[in-house]
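Self-study notes.
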Amino acid sequence: MQQDMFGQGVTLQSPQALSDWNSAMMAFLAHSAATPGHLGATLTQEPEFALGQAVKGLFTLLLGRRELYPTAREALALAEAAATGAAITPREQSYIHALAAYLDGFPMKSVQHLEEVLLNAPGDALAAKLSHAIRFVMGDAGGMRRSLEALMPSYGPGHPARGYILGCYAFALEETGDYARAETFGRRGLELCPDDAWGLHAVAHVYDMTANAQGGLTWLEGREAAWAHCNNFRYHVWWHKALMHLDLGDYDTALALYDAEIRADKTDDYRDISNGTSLLSRLELDGIDVGDRWEELADLSMARTEDGCLIFADLHYLLALIGGGREDAMSRMIARIHRDADDGQTEVDARFAHPGVSAAHGLEAFGEGDYTSAFSHLAAARATMQDAGGSHAQRDVFERLTIDAGLRAGLLDQAGAVLQERTAKRAGRNDGYAEARFEMIAKTRRIPAE
């Protein structure tokens, strides 16, 4: 048995396989496009590396694609077979249990197994990042923060993953409203690990949540190298930059970034489609004609109506179908969301029930111009929208649609209340969207009724 770069024992035999494994872990922490290559090299040399197979399965599930579940199940089978054929550590066994739980539809049980690893090996940055990633997908911001706060003493100046863990902590702080400390830790992490795109983006979130779009642009300017090496996460950082331009009313630049960076590669990854649909929705709410850009998103989303991996993904697919006018596919997806919600067997099903059903009907009604119904459904979904996963910035598209539905329905008091709650979450500051809507409410109230 050898030790990895984080001081954890691994059942790898060859020094080269260990080197590739270390590279895979560091690449994963950096959201690097090189991650699959390093992991593949490790498993090519030692396919019976149970931990590697389990991690491959977890990486696959985090992609949120139903057609990849057989790949994850194959990885689980290989990991379990390797575990029975050789001596493995309790740590490695916990990773296998984590994969099995996720495959069964219980991602938070998967997190529990990873947290068991961290109780005994808090310096295991791979387990820390995986726990963080799954909690993020499940909307567990408080859990992200608690987990990292317990681990921080183990990531002192000598730990090779210290910068990346600081970046994760920065994001957890931002998502739980501690904006000043989030910025401090995010900047500190990036100083230690200049390729820490997650930490860089955590600071971008702070600027979003404190209504400082110009400060956010200044922060990102000249730091492109921090995300140029990334997998599809690089599109997401460009998305943040586009949101900042949108907030400043620079719609031409936002659209240019959409075409040149965010959707330059017509991928069908749910995170990439989410970037596209949410930006187009925001632009349209501000009265911008987005041309035929909905078409390719709708074409891709038509193939995802039966996916059912994540409600966050499905709601963004639904936005694309509505934007592209694909009524049959939209109906199929809403019916399937109902089936998953009614099934109610797993943690994932629970998210389809709440906020899924209400949110889906709200989006459908908004697309049909039934704004009273849209507001009713979307407002009902707000109580559990955190459970859809993603970040405050990502879920804000649903807040905006809720508010605009209320305004279009003439429900000024109700829409205004949601708008005020939105501002309260954002350090009490109004961004360009909020300023425009508050002015809209005030103007409408100044106009005498006929």
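Second protein, same conventions, sequence then structure:
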Amino acid sequence: MIPSDKLIKMRAIDDKDLNHISEQLRDGLCPLIAMVYEKNSFTLLVNRFCWNHQDSIANQPMYYRSHMGLLFLHVKNVQRKGFEQHSGERILNLLHINTQVNDSTWVHLVFSGNHEIRLEVEKLETYLSDLHDPWPTRSKPTHLHEHLAEMVA
């Protein structure tokens, strides 16, 4: 069981807050069937890697994953890039969340594989919360920049 001080519950009302949420969700796995747009809100389930918690069992690193709920309020429009909503049980890998403000405010959920979800919002109000205790995993996401030294050797 993860200590209660490691469980996450956050609210974002500006870019700085949203950046903190984005950091927690880096490498989160998002099933398309768990994304819902209705009644001016967009919700999704994210299987997040718990970057804030690591143990060691028998001198082996032990990491954790957790299901989180992510809720965006005041949503006026949703656009998808690179995939269709009804693509079966497909899972997207969340890389980053950011905003763009011009005539409207847009929240961009950027996924690997050049996939993206754009939410047009009246104002930024987002909630993120762990839904239950995390479970252990021995796998940790890796990124290309972590292997650059190996590539040039």
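Instructor comment on the second fold: The radius of gyration is 17 Å.
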